[in-house]
Write a structure and sequence with these properties.
Strand content: 5-15%
Family: Belongs to the class I-like SAM-binding methyltransferase superfamily. RsmB/NOP family.
Helix content: 25-40%
Structural class: alpha/beta
Keywords: Acetylation, Coiled coil, Methyltransferase, Nucleus, Phosphoprotein, RNA-binding, rRNA processing, S-adenosyl-L-methionine, Transferase
Subcellular location: Nucleus, Nucleolus
Largest sheet: 8 strands, mixed
CATH superfamily of the largest domain: Vaccinia Virus protein VP39
Pfam families: Methyltr_RsmB-F, NSUN5_fdxn-like, NSUN5_N
Distance between the termini: 41 Å
CATH architecture of the largest domain: 3-Layer(aba) Sandwich
GO biological process, one term: rRNA base methylation
Length: 464
Amino acid sequence: MALYSAAAAVLEGLERGEGGLKSLVYNSGFPHVRQLYALVSETLRYTSVLEKLLDGAALLQAEKKLAPQLAKVLVYDLLFGKGLKCGGRWKALARRHRSRLEAELARMKVRHKVSRNEDLLAPEKTVSAAASQVPRYIRVNTLKTCVDDVIDFFKRQGYAYLGKAATVEELKALSGKKFLLDLHLPELLVFPAQTDLHDNLLYTSGHIILQDKASCLPAFLLGPVVGSHVIDACAAPGNKTSHLAAILKNKGQIFAFDVDPKRVATMNTLLTRAGVTGCQLAQQDFLTVDPRDPKYSRVTHILLDPSCSGSGMVTRGPGEEVAPSAERLQALAGFQRRVLNHALSFPALQRLVYSTCSLHQEENEDVVQAVLQEWGSAFRLVTAFPSWPCRGLAVFSGAESCLRASPAETLTQGFFMAVLERCREGAATLSSLPATAKENPQPGEGTEPGAAPKKRKKKKQQVK
């Protein structure tokens, strides 16, 4: 059962944009990483087939407590893999539905006029060519070190530092043992796509975080001032949480929530390795958190990255872009509206970042528009990071204030971000400023293209 639970957790992490396949597998805590990697990779490869099987056999409707990610893993191993060698009660559940699943699989083969399971797989999608160019991004963990020291460390390991990138094309051209400072984010280094740093001392000691550039944007855009009280509503496995802690310099308070106990345990391990303090972890559904609890009376910033279709995520291993059904999208959007409404109800809230790793308008612009309409003039969209090249779809007035990211245009995973701010009488407009420019200049200064990040006066502990 541990294998299937771990695989389902990795799939959920991919859907939520918390990292690439390899990073999530290595951070899972599962002892047999090769076995886990193989199972998740193959499940991803069969994703479109598995979703059609689950819909056709109505498995999720029949088993309300079975999570979609776990269902995919179980059905993959039952029909295409090793035949469920373990699994406990979930194994028994899957076998109860085996006849229906096999019948649906047979019908699929007849409809597609194929005889082999492999023939059901769709050819590689055009997004794969762009995805193969997505570089390896590493975020320097400023709780333990600084950019200059990390650059020096890699230079001593034989890497050639090429300075700060001026264009996305420079990132695309990286090869061999060369690396750059990102053109947008001041603490992000960029390496060629196939660079593997999982065994590097800086990674294992928590001095660097392997995190896609798009996944770094939500905390950067939120930009809480040092000393703020912040909520990370759907936090596991914790990369964004550790980024918030770095922006806060471990001063203030972070409340991080996730409903899954194993994901909370993984997050605790990651945050400890990263040197994060002042963070309260809670195994709790964020929707059950009481905004009127005095504990949260000083919460001014919320990062909300709820469960989504994961359609923007492109793994570095085998796999396909997720193609959810219309019913699945509708259900996700309904949940996302509820959780965004809930987040906006915290009385001291001043700024919120809503993000997904989805490409679908239903989960992105449509959710933001619906919730803003419900709140009237209480909140507004902020035009964060004006120089960012990809904006929200112009489906309502102001939607261009939102940000999008994609492998083809920004050399990142696919993401969507919206910055919401409480309206205040006489408040100065932020619409012409990059994110964090007014609230917290420390992480945001010098981050517009062409501006050099400021030198730190005092270095943190040096890695030798």
